[in-house]
Amino acid sequence: MDTSDAGEAAAIPSPEDVPAPPRRRRRRWHTVLVVILVVLVAAVVILSRWNVGYYALTPGDATPVAPLITVPPELDHPVHGSILLTDVYETQLNALTYLQERYFSSNAQVYSTGELIGSSTPADQYIDQGYLQMTQAQQFATAAALTHLGYTVSSQNAGVLVYGIPPGAPAAHVLKVAEVLTAVNGTATPTPCALVSALHGLVAGTSATLTVEASSINSSGTFVAGPTVHRTVTLGTPPKGDVDTGCGPATKPTAYLGIETAQQTAWDFPVKVSVHTADIGGPSAGLAMTLGIIDKMSGGDLTGKRTVAATGTIDAQGDVGDVGGVAQKTIAVERAGATVFFVPPQELAAAKSKDTPQLHVYAVSSLDQALRILERLGGTMPTDHVSAQAAP
Asked: Which of 21, 127, 219, 275 falls between 20 and 30 A from 10, CA-CA?
């Protein structure tokens, strides 16, 4: 026997001894991975379309107010420094973004829809309400600024502003948010309490004729006056029991119109001032706009060349009111380079929770208090503008 041939034969394994390549295992894992990927994609799509009824407040913009303010050329001054208004972004959350903002974002504050806009306020009304608040904030800021500068500002009650309409209310198909109700059956309604009085004694199920200024909010959030029209509404059945309308003792209403109201005011400003805040809603820029108007009309040195931010409502007397989202606004003004931030006293702790050593936060309850702080920081205070103009 040829031993070399035998050795070569012995070195060749039989087919049964050769292991099969692991093709099935590879295919099986490939299939599993594809299934997992498909499930993950489907889950992301479902979660992204699932409205969970929550909103996130996140830091918005800090915007210089001077370019937004228009005053007569002879009263306009270049500003040295900057006054910032600040806002927040309100984002409706789906299940996917809810998890992200609730558990993984340190700068977001999450609210339920009921907490933020109320359980009876449709989303489209909520947006228009924010623009109405901004319109009124601009008027109050102008009144407070001009009064501080020595001008005489007057106003009169001009009707009942339709601020909100609950779904299903008798007025839902007759009135719109931002319209102004001036009379019921010929009885003038210059105030919300006058409207309550005009409705008292009318019977549910009967018709009433409303005199309405068909004003509106345009696409950029500006209040637009409209023509006066007459509309007929069938009054509904009021809630049972006495109702506190805020107009004297609680009374039992006899008919139900179904609107949330605010006071519409006609202002007489001796100087034409305009503030252009397209697509910004809410009342919280009141203090910033007031300071900005004063700065432009009094020489432009109010801030001592600093970058100053402010948040807070304002009324015609210069009182500062509470606002929301101050923690997020603090982040926004820091990003914009502000070194001074005025906030309402109720929000001092919220602002301090997000401030840095470069940002000095001051709690103010009035315009005068903010001006005193600016003077202490090197700003030039406005004098009585009217007296200064009249001086020889």
From this structure: 21
For 10, phi and psi rounded to 5 degrees? Answer: -65, -25
Measured distance CA(282)–CA(130) in Å, rounded: 4
Q: Measuring CA to CA, which residue among 220, 134, 124 is closest to residue 172?
A: 124
State the DSSP string of 238-256. PPSS-B--SSSS-B--S-B
**What letter does residue 159 receive in the DSSP assignment?**
E
Among 229, 227, 251, CA closest to 240:
251
**pTM of the predicted protein model:** 0.84
CA 282 to chain centroid: 4
What six digits make up the tokens of 205? Answer: 């199920």
DSSP state of 21: P
332-347 pLDDT, tens digit each: 999 999 999 999 999 9
How far apart (Å, rounded) are the C-alpha atoms in residues 225 and 246? 28
Sign of torsion over alpha carbons 238, 243, 246, 247: positive
Burial class of residue 87 (count of CB atoms within 10 Å of its CB; 0-12, 13-18, 19+):
buried
H or E element in which residue 230 lies: strand 228-234
Main-chain dihedrals φ then ψ at residue 28, nearest 5 degrees: -65, -45
Bridge partners for 215 per DSSP: none
Angle between the N-to-C axes of helices 95-104 and 23-48, in degrees from 0 to 180, rounded to the nearest 10: 90
| Each residue's pLDDT tens digit, 105-143 | 788 888 887 777 776 677 779 889 999 999 999 999 999
Q: Are strands 307-310 and 340-343 parallel, antiparallel or unpaired?
A: parallel
In tens, the pLDDT along 296-309 reads: 999 999 999 999 99
